[in-house]
Design goal:
- By secondary structure, the chain is mainly alpha-helical.
- The chain has one domain: MetI-like (MetI-like fold, Orthogonal Bundle), CATH 1.10.3720.10.
- The protein contains eleven helices and no strands.
- The longest helix has 37 residues.
- The protein is elongated, with a radius of gyration of 25 Å.
């Protein structure tokens, strides 16, 4: 400066955190959610890699090791089933199938539910009434029997299971998205887009749906365990995946039949299923708390 004095050091600007950065920070401080993420990641890693590196194949028969308990010397960590197949590898394969079914069905339900709910909420009027009355009619139908009918009519196909479960799980998502859309469409940024002449499809895709990701992220963590339970129930009834593939529901069904003579056939698959469901529930609670604006 001209008077010989030095300008004071400028303090560095304070950078704010976005909603997602703040939610991630809050989620990282939730010990239960972090532990659940770690455990679930290990289960998924074992389910993906385990069957490839295991010494036994999931469909390989060992008639000299039929229905034996856990035997580390023979390489059967969880024992074998009634036809001599490695229960450890089959449990990992079952977890893989259950996770794939859950992710695929959840993706289908998200695609249908988000688009359906966003269109109904944004358009409003008679279109909204007609679309939501259709949802009410679908809600009145027992969706479990609807899935069973589809599986019986079209056969036991794993791809059909993806579509069937996704086709009945989108109803709640549509209602959630519609309610959020009714709130968002009166916000200033949406009104500015309308005044600027932006088309309705572009407003829905560029302004409405991106601002719905918070509630959608919470519902995803609740939908995945629900789909896993439905798939396990269908497999328990014999309407799930076909041999030689397996799922946790199939293994639990087989283990229930042999519970008195071979309890390990029920204990290990049921423990893996329960662990996965607990992890998803803890993660869902953590995501919900992290995204709750009242706790920020």
């Amino acid at each position: 400066m001209t008077n010989g004095t030095q300008a004071p050091d400028m303090a560095p600007p304070v950078r704010g955190r976005s909603l997602w950065q703040d939610a991630l920070r809050r989620l990282s401080h939730n010990r239960a959610a972090v532990a659940a993420v770690v455990v679930l990641a290990l289960v998924v890693l074992l389910a993906v890699v385990g069957p490839w590196i295991a010494p036994h194949a999931y469909d390989e028969l060992y008639f000299d090791h039929v229905a034996i308990g856990p035997d580390l010397d023979a390489g059967f960590l969880f024992g074998t089933d009634t036809v001599g197949r490695d229960l450890f590898v089959r449990t990992l394969m079952g977890a893989r199938i259950s996770i794939l079914v859950a992710l695929a069905a959840t993706s289908v339900s998200l695609l249908i539910g988000i688009l359906y709910g966003a269109i109904a909420g944004f358009v409003g009027g008679r279109v909204d009434n007609l679309m939501m009355r259709f949802v009410d009619i679908m809600y009145a139908l027992p969706f479990m029997f609807f899935v069973i009918i589809l599986m019986v009519v079209f056969g036991r196909n794993i791809v059909l299971m993806f579509l069937a479960l996704g086709a009945v799980e989108w109803l709640t998502m549509a209602r959630i998205v519609r309610g959020q859309t009714l709130t968002l469409k009166n916000r200033e940024f949406v009104e500015a887009a309308v005044a600027s002449g932006v088309t309705r499809p572009r407003i829905i895709l560029r302004h409405i749906i991106p601002n719905l990701l918070g509630p959608v992220a919470v519902y995803i963590t609740l939908t995945i365990p629900q789909v896993i339970l439905v798939e396990s129930f269908l497999s328990f009834l014999g309407l799930g995946v076909q041999e030689p593939l397996t799922s946790l529901g199939v293994l639990i069904s087989e283990g229930a039949d042999e519970m008195e003579t071979a309890p390990w056939m029920l204990i290990f698959p049921a423990t893996v299923l329960a662990t996965m469901l607990f992890c998803f529930n803890f993660i869902g609670d953590g995501v919900r708390d992290a995204l709750d604006p009242k706790d920020r």
